[in-house]
Amino acid sequence: MGMTKDNVIGFVLAVSSSIFIGSSFIIKKMGLLKAAGNGKRAATGGHSYLTEPFWWAGMISMIVGEIANFAAYAFAPAILVTPLGALSIIFSSVLAQFILHEKLHMFGKLGCALCVVGSITIVLHAPHERDIHSVKEIWELATEPGFIFYAIICVAMICILIFRYAPTHGQKYIVVYIGICSLTGSLTVMCVKAVGMALKLTFEGNNQFKYYQTWLFTLAVVGCCLMQINYLNKALDIFNTNVVSPVYYVMFTTLTIVASIIMFKDWDHSSAQQIATELCGFVTILSGTFLLHKTKDMGNPPPEVSNISKSSDDPPEI
Q: Quick one: where's region Disordered (predicted)?
């Protein structure tokens, strides 16, 4: 299936977003590392990183990337835009090797190549965007039983992770903080899609901000984004960047695609061949991120044996 003009615009915006977001991981990590030597670490509730210029530079880079990502969702379906986040993994992994001296093994480079191949496959076979003429149409999709059930499950799991597991297991298991970010992120993307479409229609002369649904979606975006930033900071402060990026990508992308299929019914008008090709592209990307994760310590010298209890710099458990 050929790409439409809107899909091409969404693709360009998504790639630009990946470059800025991939850079932000590294710049923010530099700020967090510097702040850890001057005060209480973010993982233990400290906020000294707020005085670090590098952290703010990283935040600006992330904001620019998120704005581009936000705009991409107004033009292309989530099943096209979200998987392209793999490009941010490649960018952050390469920068981490040269700036943070986090080793990227040959198999990690192969993982990057797989991410690129998978992304291209998805881009070439992405479904066309659903025609939306009002934010009220998106509200109707969001209030259908299927998506309401998905949202309830997400909120319940987020609450369990925050109040039950984060205080005791957050600094040991990366899946806790990243799970919170990913579950919240899948709901954020659906709201971002709604606000993006509202802005697009408004700029075309059809004002959507007269509807209360637009403002509800906007409030949800702000609240969810603040939560994601908080827990992503905690994950970055504790765990290796080359681990955080791919694990976050895999969980976030999988959940977002599931949410988009449920809410926007992206595959309703796709052929079996097209769906199978998109799934193959996604699995290829997952394989690439798996390689990046599993080979993160290859080629590094073995850690020194010590009787001291495990520190936050030790490899995380998933």
A: 297-318
